[in-house]
Structures are given as structure tokens and as C-alpha cells.
């Protein structure tokens, strides 16, 4: 899977709609402290289905919505659109939107889907919100300190079999 485009609106410090094209090859994001570099990586994890507000550096999931500043009012919603190329289908567009008091809603290629469906798409492509492909600040120390079971989970995600476990659990419950 290759991420081609990212659109953010009302997400953390990205208050005005912003569009980023990610060209093939290596992309670097540079800027002064606090300009939003980590927020960008968090936006990618978030649209892939991240469910832990703590790992988004927030107390609740609504903390990803632009909170306002002295000169700008807060936003009512946050939205991230990720466009990617995959082996399975040519174009994939995933939208996650959160509104105050209404929770998150997801769309894949224009169709309403569940959070779980989005997680499965990325797990099958051996990527996703918890994939070792996304290394956030402090994560290296966490890998070193991880328990064997947690490390096994990281390996399974890297091997692309995380989605199979989720489906087995689902089948066992039926
Ligand atoms: P560093 O170089 O220090 O790692 P960074 O470029 O990674 O910095 P981020 O951590 O991505 O910076 O951005 C932090 C900024 O985002 C802070 O100024 C913070 O106030 C702002 N921010 C985070 N959440 C929100 C929100 N919900 N509403 C408004 N601003 C927010
Ligand atoms: Mg940072």
C-alpha cells in the first residue's frame, strides 16, 4: 500500500483544510517544535482506525478536534481523508470524521463502514494504526520494554496476519 494523499480539516493544529501529496520515494517533514509534524503522523494512524485517545496524546478522542485559540473559535468536527494505492484495488479512499458528541464515522470509497472494516483493510495490507511501519516518538523505548506477548503482536502485524486473528475471533463468537 502506498499513501498518495492526505487531507486534514479541523484535525488538531490543522484547522484550515490542508492537502498533502506524498510522492513516491522518501518524504521528509521538517519544521520548528510544535508546528504539527507529529500531528501529521497521528492523522495517518487516526484515519487507519486508532481507537486509543492516549496514543493520540489526548484524554478523549474528541481532543483531536481543533480546540481553538485566542483568535480562532474551536471546530465542531475533525476529518482526515487518506488516499492510497493498493495491490488489491487501484484506489482506496478512507475518510474518518469525528463530531463533538457524535463519535467517529468512517467511509471507504464513499460507502459507510464500521471501524472494524477499516482496521481489517490496513491489517491485510500489513499496515495500520499499530503497525511497526509507523514509529512514533517514544515507541523505540516501548518496544525494548515490551512483554513477549506484546512483541509477538508486533511481529504478527509485521507479517500481515493480524487481520486473520480478528476474523477468527469474530467467527468464534458467531
Ligand atoms: P516537536 O518537534 O516538538 O516534536 P511537532 O512538530 O511534532 O513538534 P506536534 O506535536 O505535532 O509538533 O504539534 C503540537 C501542536 O499542536 C501544539 O502547538 C498543540 O497546541 C497543537 N494541538 C494539538 N492538539 C490540538 C487541538 N486539538 N487543537 C489545537 N491545537 C492542537
Ligand atoms: Mg513531534
From TrEMBL:
<comment type="subunit">
    <text>Homodimer.</text>
</comment>
<comment type="function">
    <text>Required for chromosome condensation and partitioning.</text>
</comment>
<comment type="similarity">
    <text>Belongs to the SMC family.</text>
</comment>
<protein>
    <recommendedName>
        <fullName>Chromosome partition protein Smc</fullName>
    </recommendedName>
</protein>
<feature type="binding site">
    <location>
        <begin position="32"/>
        <end position="39"/>
    </location>
    <ligand>
        <name>ATP</name>
    </ligand>
</feature>
